[in-house]
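User: Run a structure prediction on this.
Assistant: Running it now.
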Amino acid sequence: MIRRAVLTVVLVSAVATFVGARPVAAATVRPPVVVIFVHDSMWSLMPPTIESWATANLSLHSAGDGQQAMDSYLSIGKGGRSGGLGTAVGAGPVDLQGDVLRLLEWPAFVAHDRGLHFPGQLGQFGQTLRDRHIASELVVTTDLEVAGALADHSGVVDHVSFGGSVAVDAAVKRGTTPLVMAETDYTGVPSMLEAAGSSCTVVVSSSMPQRSHHLGAFAASPACGLGQGRLRSPTTRQTDYLVLADVAPTILDLLGTAPAAHVEGNAVRPEPGHRSIAWFEAVDRRAGVARQAARPFLELLLAGTLLGLVTTAVAVRHRRRVAATLLALPVSTFLINLVPWWRAGPRVGMLAAVALAAALGVIARRAVGDRPAAVTACLAGLTAVVLGLDAATGGHLQLNSVLANNALGAGRFTGMGNVPYGFFMAACLVLMALAFDRWGRRAFPAALALAVGAVVVDGAPMLGADVGGVLAAVPAFALVLATWRRSLPLRRLAPLLVGGVVVVAMFAAFDLSRPAAAQTHLARALSSGDLAGTVLRRENNALDSFRGNPFFDLAMVAAAGLWLERNRLSSSRPLRVGLAGVATVAILGTSLNDSGVAVAGAVAAVAWPAYLLLLGPLITPPPQPDAAAARSATSPAR
């Protein structure tokens, strides 16, 4: 009995020892996720090794101007937009006790970030790692600013080491830390990659070279399980484009955990296909040239508006030729993106846009004859169709165009941008006015369908999710639909303003019902309770937009022209009401969008040449008989 009991105890102890030892052994052999931040970098400086990885462009302008690494690190650690901190103070003073680092300026960083009214909280990434007991190590090569990416809500990083690639190699070989984060410049990337070995390695641009504007790089090695091709972000809703807010959720996803609620970014997902480094360099060049050309193109639109004002004093046939070209110019700035004009530079792009606009004007006039209403309808219809279809299919003509969604600005990557919104809505309102003027009541179903389609394209969560645009467009469309025939008392017009709120509420309810990764900024602002901050930030940006903006000059010139030529405008009520709808969408769009007066300027760039085409002949006083003729006419006949 005693011998049997002893054998039983020995066997049980051996089994327990063997079973208990297995998890420890498994934990020690698992390689960590290695994240390498590369400052002062762009695609042309990246090693060719990452070409076979999963890759995407990274917009660095989602944090300040994208040239200060500290802004990028704070945005990454927040999982949302921030900025203006690295430019002012950098990392500031730090307190290093052993391997624990504290950013002493952290309270000032938090206060500054709250003043920006962007959703989220600084240090959310580091706090999530701490709350979920995921150990991490920060390897510093030359710059302590990288601590902003891993700091928790208190500005503390638990484990900091120094030594660059040597320290990374040691951390990988230990295999006891699930996450290793390091910083270097582009010359140190090869040695960092060698130190990371077969680990899941992520290379992230943290700033661009000084005094230049470029797209950053994001690349994940095949060991990360994201494939060896393209990447897509739910945040941008665009393949090949990520923002800094996506970096932290992606790292957490690679670690097998989810980000905290209400962060702005999302984990990226693989997409079929492959992009070479040469392709990324070409996209980077396109975005840079388009950004450089934005001001000249705006000045071109302004010059055209002034030219239109001059033509009010010339013969009708010459004025209509110029007006047709000016009306076709806004849509031409997007149609030229069908060819790689940016390879030749901004001047060639401007010449191409003007030549295309002139050709479209000639084609329209020859297709429908010298009938101003028909020519206006053709060109306004072309503008509405091109921009509407583009927004509904991903906004590819607008992305990295001179007047819309440039990825360097980290704004909208898909859907309807604010400037195209102004072009689009003005074109739709002009079409509605012309339809009512031509067909009267029979045009109402088509006009209503046009209004509904325009609002859906602009505001539906899966397409544009443009809250301010919907709030401005619905009252403008309702005004034209309700008053094209006869005026209504003010008490009956007041509910039209509420219509936009009702439509936005419907879109918001639909957006909130979708999965969190598919939700837009509208649902996230509502669910996070930060709606008031979002509205305040938009209004501040709208007010700032009036400073030195060519769109403001454009809107003022167009308004002055319409006022000076008010007696020559058609007396048709539908056309007059259409002009009131245009003014409504311009004023409300300026007030409710963060692009501010750019919306009014874009509306004017379409409405002014459209009404210029419709102007009547120059009004001249009837000839006065001379005095001798007058006396002869009044003298009695002999």
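Residues 1-29, 627-638 have pLDDT under 50 and may be disordered.
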